[in-house]
Amino acid sequence: MISAAGAIIVVGLGLAFVFVITLVSLGTVPDDQKSTVVTAAFTVVGTVVGTYFGVRAGAAGKERAEAARDAETMKVQELAASVDSSTARQALDRAQQRADTVARSASSTSFPAL
Q: Which sign, positive or negative, has the C-alpha torsion 85, 89, 94, 96?
């Protein structure tokens, strides 16, 4: 909660700073360059707002992914607890073979054929 409020304050101060610089610049530049100043200000505002919402959306997606992973982990643990030891050993061996295969293919230096 505190970090979100701090981020909003920093973004708000940054936008206020850009607004002040834009107003000062509009009063000091020639008329034919005022559109350049306004365009630069809109670019900064758009970038800051887009970044803010992009980071927030990414953080929310990460939280949902972690919650889904935790739920699946609990399911697997419950399932593993109810399986007899010989079946569990066979399943672990198969999983290790698959993991080794994936690791070998990931570390391959050859390029795939197009």
A: positive
8 by DSSP, 3-state: which? helix
Which tops the pLDDT comparison, 108 or 42? 42
With 0.70 as the threshold, say if the pTM is over it. Answer: no
Tokens 């758009």, residue located? 46
What's the rounded Cα separation, in Å, for the pair 81 and 71? Answer: 16
Q: Which residues contact residue 21 at a Cβ distance below 8 angstroms, ignoring those fewer than 6 apart?
A: 41
CA dist., res. 18 & res. 24, Å (int)? 10
Q: What span, in angstroms and rounded, lies between the C-alpha atoms of 57 and 22?
A: 29
